Structure formats: C-alpha cells, structure tokens
Backbone:
C-alpha cells in the first residue's frame, strides 16, 4: 500500500501522541480502507500511535469477513499485520461493542476495551487526533 | 498558532469542504499560520479544475486556488486517493497515458507522508469530514 518512503531519522526529535479514530463500517464507504493506508504510511514516522474503533468502526475488526460476493477487497487481515509496524495500541469502545452484541472474542486482533469516560481521558492525552 | 488542515470530503455533496475553506480563511485573517492543507478521501475532488458550478453558486475549487495564491498555501492532494478518483497532474497523466490532466492551480499531488508530517509539525490539526 505504500507509495513512498520516508527517512525515519528525520523525525527522531519529535514524537507526538497520534491517534486514529475509526468510526465507519469497513465496507459501504472507503473510509476504513483509506484510514488503514494512513496508519501504515504513518508507521514510518515512529510516532506514539493509538488506534480507536468506535461506532460502526468496531466492525472493521470483526472476524470472518467475507467480501467475495461484493467484489470488495477484504483488507481485514492487514489489522493483524499492524504489530509488525509497531502499531500495538488498539482500543475499542465498550459501548459500541455492546450496542452491536460484540465481544473481544469476535475480533481478529487483541484490543483494550474502554468505556466512554476512559476513552475521553485517552483522547485528552493526545497531541493529534485524525478521525475517519 | 500553526494549523494543519485535513479535508476528507469533496465539494458540494458535503459542506465539510466549505467549512474547511471558511476556517482557513478566518484563521489567516486572525494572523495564524496554515502549515498545510491535505486533501484525502473524496476531499481530493476539491482539486479538480474541471468543476463548473452554476454561476449563482460559490466556486469552491477556484476559492481554494485564489486563497493559495494570496497566502502562498501548501495545498496537497493525496496521490493514492487522487488516482482512484481521477484527479491527475501533468506528470501523472503522462505516466498513466491519459489524454489530459485536471489538477487545479495552487494544488500539488503528493503522498500520505505529507499528512503525517503536517500532523507532527503543526500545533493543531483540524479534521473536516462527514
């Protein structure tokens, strides 16, 4: 997915807390896929990265996605590769999971579940929040 | 303050692009600096000079181009998102064998690293989307 390379040393001095908030279902719109592309490119910059999944965004991590019939690309295996990019802080909204009848066992990667108050605290700590 | 701006929606379908433009204009008027404006998702459609809105409507693409010229703004369209949606400059048109290019004046095409860099370099990043 990468389209260019960046010199990691260039940003050694500045490490910001950078959060990506994913709020949309994986299919139906392109937001989830293009958000993942930002995360992968951004990994080269060695920032302190967190990913949040809330609202329909929690479906992005759902196990057993099958997109054959819709001719969409199933990009969910890429979330399992995030670890190799040192993107290891994944958070999901407890309320969003509950509303959709999902539990941590339904997800393809290990996550930390946060309630709305904890999520607000985590967001408060961030330097940059990119919402998709 | 130094702002980075992310525009995630194209003009006319969503008001987000108008709001981003109005915010940018207001911030500049107040003496703030705009480090970069990055156009992603369908936001890349802010950068096509083929847009031809009715005469009694605002011309957002032209507004961006004018603002960029007046304030020497860095308007960056994401290359991957742009290619999917048919926004190309001369180089890209040649590379892909297209018969014309449509990138509006004042815009340039580059990679997602430009968004991350803007996030690091700016004091605050504003996201305009749906």
Residues:
């Amino acid at each position: 997915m990468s389209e260019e390379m960046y010199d990691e040393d260039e940003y050694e001095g500045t490490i910001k807390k950078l959060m990506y908030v994913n709020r949309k279902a994986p299919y139906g719109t392109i937001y989830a896929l293009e958000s993942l592309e930002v995360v992968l490119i951004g990994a080269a910059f060695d920032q302190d990265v967190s990913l949040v999944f809330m609202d329909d965004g929690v479906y992005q991590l759902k196990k057993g996605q099958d997109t054959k019939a819709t001719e969409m690309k199933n990009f969910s295996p890429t979330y399992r590769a995030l670890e190799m990019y040192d993107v290891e802080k994944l958070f999901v909204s407890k309320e969003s999971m509950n509303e959709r009848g999902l539990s941590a066992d339904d997800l393809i990667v290990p996550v930390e579940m946060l309630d709305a108050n904890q999520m607000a605290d985590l967001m408060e700590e961030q330097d940059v929040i990119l919402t998709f | 303050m130094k702002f980075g701006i992310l525009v995630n929606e194209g003009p006319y379908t969503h008001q987000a692009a108008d709001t981003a433009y109005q915010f940018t204009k207001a911030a500049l008027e107040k003496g703030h600096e705009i480090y970069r404006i990055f156009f992603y998702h369908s936001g890349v459609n802010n950068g096509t000079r083929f847009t031809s809105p009715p005469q009694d409507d605002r011309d957002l693409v032209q507004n961006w181009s004018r603002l960029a010229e007046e304030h020497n703004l860095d308007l960056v369209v994401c290359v991957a998102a742009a290619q999917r949606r048919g926004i190309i400059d001369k180089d890209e048109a040649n590379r892909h064998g297209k018969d014309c290019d449509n990138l509006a004046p004042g815009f340039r095409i580059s990679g997602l690293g430009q968004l991350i860099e803007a996030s690091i370099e700016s004091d605050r990043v504003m996201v305009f989307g749906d």
In short: The helical segments of chain B are 16-29, 60-71, 79-85, 90-95, 113-121.
